[in-house]
């Protein structure tokens, strides 16, 4: 196989995904460069990269969204390719163009694909036109004046979504049409702020829907394969919490249909590089939701069941190589579950938490993969997304995977910043989850999973804390032996 | 050390009857103590709540280290005085542990006559501070006192051991380097103002605490000036203007937390080193004491049976077991500390007095604290005994008791009469601590004997005036005399007058002694030094 | 006087004392004894309660103790009685607007010197993908705004200080 045309790849991202990409680059013998904001100076990605270039911004997030600075950094690092990771500029066509224009290979789809799929309405129309299923909807820009009226005709429950963006930001469920206008106003304000684009659309909200998505991979030779589905139904406020592959909801036929639909959509879009086609599945039907034109957070479960390194494939495709396998070569083996470790407190309404990582110890063992973006000593702030790490397990069956994931989450030790680790163990031993009966409203319907039992079993912790707190222990030790032996004697 | 082999038959009828009697006495004691501690008119408690003040018992519990003992002293002070209306003499005093330090807690009880000082209150405070001086115990004062009870001022103001002694003792403690912390939790008026002022550290509670020589009414009367409590002596003024108080507290609990923090910083007590091993519980159950103490105080019992239920492993090394047998002397351990025990098994004779004097010097020489267990009707009288020098030998014992440098402790187990009271380390002989058991009696003579004498005197007076007295008349004279004499020689009367440091339920004696013994070791034990023994 | 720890916003009163085989822990509704803790290495130890041992991971950060036992991590705040009791009736806290949760400042709608009444919006903050309005806790005058737009802050951070001037 001929040598890759790249030597240095700039990672325009941070956290666990930056670490994840660096690992593959190392495996491929490529140099890694990374941009970082000062707030990330102590993170492992910065430490691991061969070159790290500081960038700045009005806010830390703004720095990672600053296209000219990032391109300048790429030049400075003599990077010949750029990997955008997920989030930030990963689905920004303008960025992809600017990168290409700067003579740097963009590791991702063509800007046109990003544009097509990045505009939810265009994407939806495209999918519908090509004969794939979409949910009933109302699109604002079709006729802004009648948007609210058309929204009403879709009927409740419905979902208000920004045309731009994703990741659940700005989405709102409306169950009572009386609340429709408020929801539209709020969604618009958030959409405007997050994506600089206040356009919205509305679609039928499938009750108890399951979120099933299919990984696809295409090259510049027109080859396009799917790498099976992932189920991401365990969500809180549209944020995925636990993902798995394969989906426990699909029969063989249905699995084939949904995977083939995804591949068909991508093929129709002449899609190159890695992408994900997301579906809503409920009542035996599935609808196209959106396509993410980038690597997903949860790509790791697909990697685990297929044994394919998706980051490496992305680089090969960007380097102009043809896929080294056909659809029939891709075999799904066993079951993978990913649990996302967040700096947040599910017990208190998922408020983000902060702190310094004082102790960090990951579980290890066969079939356990950790994609971590943090190290001991690091400060966790609210400057970025609260995801700290992913714990991915692989076992022959789903139930074994769930047990392994549960054990792994119990063994994980992160002290200094409150996390959702115990919440994840609660999901992993919950009966509904274990039986596979989950949907995107599962956590809302089972609030006890999030709230936990706050006061249960505190005494062991109090005992430990008491014995470790100097004023408490000192005051116990200060009591003379005789008087300690007499206890609270009174005459 | 040999274990005492008890010969008590715990299944005997006698034992059961005694047990019934003494358990009743113990229950009565507990009930009286409970009443004195907690029975308050609802309006008094309501007033405290309104003033945002804690009840004195709650203040003390908050001050003390959790799960540590508190030995309350003179709980029943004033129980036979002032028509019983001033429980505990409106004072709570005891030894407790604060931030790991053994301290004297002295608290005014504002739920009794607003914490006013009665004559016995003053006596109780002076005694508390004497204990602090003798045992070098830091003091925490919880001040909440309306001032002296003026109608009785003649009984607490001017004399040597009256109110001035409180402040003198505070000054002496400071001079000795024994620290005091005071919390002004209520008004500290007139003399009471000096308690915080003379403490090395004092804390004043915002809103409720105030310190002044004369309160607003006194100021108004004296100078015509109208001034508020807060302006005159409140927390803000004293901590920022006058410097009378050191620490400003937002609440009583805050003040207590500050006090604990201050005490935590005190130097640890340097304990006098005495022979000590690991503690061991007695081999016999302390509750058997109830069955051993005779219900008739005139009945003799073997003090070794008492010792067996007080000391470690019931082990007792008896000294001179074959000589002067009416005074049992020997070594035993209490919570591991070696002590010299001197206990009465009958009246004192010349040989027992000599044995006691000798044993005291022995203990003094080898730094062994002394425990006196009293059941003494007096020295033997009569021509033969005087000729053998009973007075001279008694003087030796008193000389030894007075001169001993080691700490002494006294428990009146049953009776304490005549010169025996003195020779067995009575109150006047500076025992560090003195406790009584509920049925004990203390008087110059036993009640029957004294009543005989008094009746005889009265009868003679009446006879001189003419008439002869029938047996009936004599009985009529005798009855009230015996009654009053009994009353005034009872443990309750003694403790009311603070002749002791409190009545103990016999089963509590071991723990109480351990606490006071430990406290006593804060003071270095000086080398033995005596006066002239009449030989 | 008892010690106090706060766990998940709940205050627990406890006292610790020595007993024969270690320590005795008294909680409001139970006594646990004997307990012992042996530290094995930095941040690692074994808690023994009545003879049963449990491995423990811990980290101490000032008055905050992070403890991990049986897959569960709890954060325990030691509440120093001196500080807690001193603050108990500190009236100053009415003059500050605190962050109810960590987040970042989206917009600030007041400026120093401006008179505000109770309920006036002071700041819009963003946390958990949702915007929250921070309102004035009382009437007063804006004294200081502690964070610029775009800056992030921790829970309980003082966002805006008010003064009573001009009232």
Task: Provide structural commentary.
The complex is a heterotrimer of chains A (491), B (535) and C (167). Chain A is an alpha+beta fold. Chain A folds into four domains: 8-107, 3-Layer(aba) Sandwich (Rossmann fold), CATH 3.40.50; 136-204, 2-Layer Sandwich (Dna Ligase, domain 1), CATH 3.30.1490; 210-451, 2-Layer Sandwich (D-amino Acid Aminotransferase, Chain A, domain 1); 457-491, no CATH class. Chain A has 20 helices and 23 strands. In chain A, the strands form six sheets. In chain A, strands 14-13-10-11-12-15-22-20 form an eight-stranded antiparallel β-sheet. Chain A has a five-stranded parallel β-sheet with strand order 3-2-1-4-5, sandwiched between helices. In chain A, a hairpin with a 5-residue loop joins β10 (210-218) and β11. With 535 residues, chain B is an alpha/beta fold. Chain B folds into three domains: 11-40 and 273-444 and 490-535, 2-enoyl-CoA Hydratase, Chain A, domain 1; 45-264, 2-enoyl-CoA Hydratase, Chain A, domain 1; 447-488, no CATH class. Chain B has 20 helices and 15 strands. In chain B, strands 1, 2, 3, 4, 5, 6, 7 and 8 form an eight-stranded mixed β-sheet that branches. In chain B, strands 9, 10, 11, 12, 13, 14 and 15 form a seven-stranded mixed β-sheet that branches. In chain B, β4 (139-145), α5 (163-176) and β5 form a beta-alpha-beta unit. Chain B is globular and about 75 Å long. The model of chain B has no long low-confidence stretch (mean pLDDT 95). With 167 residues, chain C is mostly beta strands. Chain C has two domains: 3-84, Glycoprotein, Type 4 Pilin; 92-163, OB fold (Dihydrolipoamide Acetyltransferase, E2P), CATH 2.40.50.100. Chain C contains one helix and 16 strands. Chain C has one helix spanning 81-87, and strands at 3-7, 10-19, 22-27, 31-41, 44-49, 52-61, 64-69, 72-79, 96-98, 103-108, 115-116, 121-127, 130-135, 140-145, 152-153, 158-163. In chain C, the strands form three sheets. Chain C has an eight-stranded antiparallel barrel with strand order 1-2-3-4-5-6-7-8. In chain C, strands 9-16-14-11 form a four-stranded antiparallel β-sheet, with no helix packed on it. In chain C, strands 13-12-10-15 form a four-stranded antiparallel β-sheet, with no helix packed on it. In chain C, a hairpin with a 2-residue loop joins β1 (3-7) and β2. The longest helix of chain C is centred in the middle third of the chain and has 7 residues, at 81-87. The two termini of chain C are 42 Å apart. The model of chain C has no long low-confidence stretch (mean pLDDT 86). Classes of the chains: A alpha+beta (491), B alpha/beta (535), C mainly beta (167). Chains in contact: A-B, A-C, B-C. The interface between A and C is large, with 64 and 62 residues.
């Amino acid at each position: 196989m001929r040598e890759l045309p790249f030597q240095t790849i700039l990672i325009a991202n941070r956290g666990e995904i930056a670490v994840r990409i660096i690992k593959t680059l190392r495996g491929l013998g490529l140099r890694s460069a990374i941009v970082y904001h000062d707030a990330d100076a102590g993170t492992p990605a910065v430490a691991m990269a061969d070159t790290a270039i500081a960038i700045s911004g009005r806010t830390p997030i703004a720095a990672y969204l600053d296209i000219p600075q990032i391109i300048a950094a790429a030049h400075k690092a003599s990077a010949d390719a750029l990997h955008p990771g997920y989030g930030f500029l990963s689905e920004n066509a303008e960025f992809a163009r600017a990168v290409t224009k700067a003579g740097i290979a963009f590791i991702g789809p063509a800007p046109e694909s990003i544009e097509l799929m990045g505009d939810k309405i265009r994407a939806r129309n495209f999918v519908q036109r090509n004969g794939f299923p979409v949910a009933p909807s109302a699109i604002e820009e079709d006729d802004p004046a009648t948007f609210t009226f058309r929204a009403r005709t879709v009927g409740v429950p419905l979902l208000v979504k920004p045309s731009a963006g994703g990741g659940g930001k700005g989405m709102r469920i409306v169950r009572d049409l009386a609340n429709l206008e408020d929801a539209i106003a709020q969604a618009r304000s958030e959409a405007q702020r997050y994506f600089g684009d206040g356009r919205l659309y509305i679609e039928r909200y499938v009750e108890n829907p399951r979120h099933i998505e299919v990984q696809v991979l295409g090259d510049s030779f027109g080859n396009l394969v799917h790498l099976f589905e992932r189920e991401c139904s365990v969500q809180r406020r549209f944020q995925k919490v636990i993902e798995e592959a394969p989906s426990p909801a699909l029969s063989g036929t249905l699995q084939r249909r949904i995977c083939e639909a995804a591949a068909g959509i991508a093929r129709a879009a002449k899609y190159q590089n890695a992408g994900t086609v997301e579906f809503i599945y409920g009542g035996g039907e599935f609808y196209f939701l959106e396509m993410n034109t980038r690597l997903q957070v949860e790509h790791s479960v697909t990697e685990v069941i297929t044994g394919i390194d998706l980051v490496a494939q992305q680089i090969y495709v960007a380097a102009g190589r043809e896929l080294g396998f056909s659809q029939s070569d891709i075999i799904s083996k066993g079951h993978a579950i990913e649990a996302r470790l967040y700096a947040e407190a599910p017990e208190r309404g998922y408020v983000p938490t902060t702190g310094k990582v004082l102790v960090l110890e990951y579980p290890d063992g066969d079939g356990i993969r950790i994609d971590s973006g943090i190290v001991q000593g690091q400060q966790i702030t609210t400057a970025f997304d609260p995801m700290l790490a992913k714990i991915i397990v692989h076992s022959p069956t789903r139930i074994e995977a769930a047990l392994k994931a549960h054990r792994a989450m119990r063994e994980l030790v992160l002290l200094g910043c409150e996390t959702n680790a115990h919440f994840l163990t609660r999901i992993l031993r919950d009966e509904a989850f274990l039986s596979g009966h989950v949907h995107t409203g599962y956590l809302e319907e089972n609030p006890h999973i999030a709230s936990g039992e706050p006061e249960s079993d505190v005494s062991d912790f109090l005992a430990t804390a008491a014995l470790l707190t100097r004023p408490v222990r000192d005051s116990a030790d200060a009591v003379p032996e005789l008087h300690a032996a007499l206890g609270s004697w009174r005459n | 050390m040999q274990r005492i082999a008890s010969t008590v038959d715990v299944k005997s009828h006698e034992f059961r009857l005694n047990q019934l009697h003494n358990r009743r006495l113990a229950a009565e004691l507990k009930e009286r103590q409970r009443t004195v501690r907690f029975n308050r008119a609802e309006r008094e408690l309501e007033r405290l709540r309104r003033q945002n003040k804690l009840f004195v018992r709650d203040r003390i519990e908050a001050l003390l280290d959790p799960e540590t003992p508190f030995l309350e002293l003179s709980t029943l002070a004033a129980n036979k005085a002032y028509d019983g209306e001033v429980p505990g003499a409106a004072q709570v005093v005891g030894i407790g542990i604060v931030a790991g330090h053994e301290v004297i807690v002295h608290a005014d009880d504002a739920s009794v006559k607003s914490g006013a000082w009665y004559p016995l209150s003053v006596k109780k405070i002076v005694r508390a501070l004497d204990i602090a001086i003798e045992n070098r115990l830091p003091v925490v004062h919880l001040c909440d006192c309306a001032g002296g009870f003026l109608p009785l001022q003649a009984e607490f103001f001017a004399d040597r051991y009256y109110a001035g002694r409180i402040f003198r003792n505070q000054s002496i403690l400071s001079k000795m380097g024994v620290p005091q912390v005071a919390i002004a939790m209520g008004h500290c008026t007139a003399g009471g103002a000096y308690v915080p002022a003379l403490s090395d550290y004092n804390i004043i509670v915002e809103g409720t605490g105030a310190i002044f020589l004369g309160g607003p009414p006194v100021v108004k009367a004296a100078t015509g000036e109208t001034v508020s409590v807060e302006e005159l002596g409140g927390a803000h003024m004293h901590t920022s203007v006058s410097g009378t108080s050191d620490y400003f507290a937002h609440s009583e609990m805050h003040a207590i937390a500050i006090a604990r923090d201050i005490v935590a910083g005190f130097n640890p007590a340097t304990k006098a080193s005495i022979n000590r091993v690991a503690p061991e519980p007695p081999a016999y159950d302390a509750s058997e004491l109830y069955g051993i103490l005779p219900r008739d105080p005139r009945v003799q019992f073997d003090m070794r049976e008492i010792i067996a239920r007080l000391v470690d492993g019931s082990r007792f090394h008896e000294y001179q077991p074959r000589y002067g047998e009416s005074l049992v002397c020997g070594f035993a351990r209490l919570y591991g500390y070696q002590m010299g025990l001197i206990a009465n098994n009958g009246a004192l004779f010349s040989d027992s007095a000599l044995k006691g004097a000798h044993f005291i010097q022995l203990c003094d020489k080898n730094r062994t604290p002394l425990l006196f267990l009293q059941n003494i009707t007096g020295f033997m009288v009569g021509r033969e005994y005087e000729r053998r020098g009973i007075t001279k030998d008694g003087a030796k014992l008193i000389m030894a008791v007075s001169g001993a440098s080691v700490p002494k402790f006294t428990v009146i187990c049953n009776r304490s009469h005549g010169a025996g009271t003195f020779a067995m380390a009575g109150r006047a002989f500076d025992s560090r601590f003195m406790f009584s058991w509920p049925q004990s009696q203390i008087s110059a003579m036993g009640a029957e004997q004294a009543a005989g004498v008094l009746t005889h005197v009265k009868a003679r007076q009446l006879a001189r005036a003419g008439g002869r007295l029938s047996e009936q008349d004599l009985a009529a004279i005798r009855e009230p005399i015996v009654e009053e004499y009994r009353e005034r020689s009872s443990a309750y009367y003694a403790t009311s007058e603070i002749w002791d440091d409190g009545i103990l339920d016999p089963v509590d004696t071991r723990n109480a002694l351990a606490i006071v013994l430990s406290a006593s070791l804060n003071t270095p034990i000086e080398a033995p030094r005596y006066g002239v023994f009449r030989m | 006087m008892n010690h106090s720890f706060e766990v998940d916003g709940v205050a627990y009163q406890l006292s610790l004392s020595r007993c024969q085989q270690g320590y005795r822990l008294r909680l409001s509704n139970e006594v646990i004894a004997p307990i012992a803790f042996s530290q094995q290495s930095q941040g690692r130890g074994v808690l023994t309660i009545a003879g049963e041992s449990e491995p423990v991971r811990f980290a101490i950060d000032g008055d905050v103790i992070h403890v991990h036992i049986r897959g569960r991590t709890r954060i325990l705040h030691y509440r120093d009685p001196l500080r807690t009791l001193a603050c108990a009736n500190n009236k100053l806290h009415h003059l500050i607007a605190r962050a109810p949760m960590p987040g970042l400042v989206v917009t600030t709608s007041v400026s120093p010197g401006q008179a505000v009444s109770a309920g006036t919006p002071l700041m819009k903050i963003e946390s958990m993908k949702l915007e929250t309005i921070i309102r004035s806790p009382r009437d007063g005058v804006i004294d200081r705004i502690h964070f610029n737009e775009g800056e992030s802050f921790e829970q309980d951070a003082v966002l805006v200080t008010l003064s009573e001037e001009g009232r």
